[in-house]
């Protein structure tokens, strides 16, 4: 594990909206590692071995069954990645109605982790400040042995 507090793992489509949001948060300056889930299946898979929060855009145009991008599903289907997830942040479009940020709902439920934050589309400066300030605090709390920071607790798949 690195000397960082933990990590933010994110997925961004070719539009780069999520990538730009993450860059504006400047999380590395706050001691948070940042990793991107590859866009193309031909790219080498991402392997994360430290506690992380997942940031994901919502897909599906309002269809909750299609809310989680395939690349994110592939990443989380690796048990060695999934065991380290500690929370989720999602972006979405309020035009999706009840499916707004549904990827976060789906992942939080399936991985049994807290849904920490949601924001619309590219986020606002206030959204960036919230993530920049609160994510390092959340990750720092995972180092406390009385919290759920031990590998294999939240994020462990249920059968």
Automatic annotation (TrEMBL):
One Pfam family it belongs to: Flavodoxin_NdrI
Gene3D superfamilies: 3.40.50.360
GO MF annotation, one: FMN binding
Signal peptide bounds: none
Top-level taxon: Bacteria
InterPro entries with a match to the protein in the record: Flavoprotein-like_sf, RNR_Ib_NrdI_bac, RNR_NrdI
Ranges annotated as spanning the membrane: none
Family named by the database record: Belongs to the NrdI family.
Role summary: Probably involved in ribonucleotide reductase function.
Protein name per the record: Protein NrdI
Organism the protein comes from: Bifidobacterium pullorum subsp. saeculare
Chain's gene name: nrdI
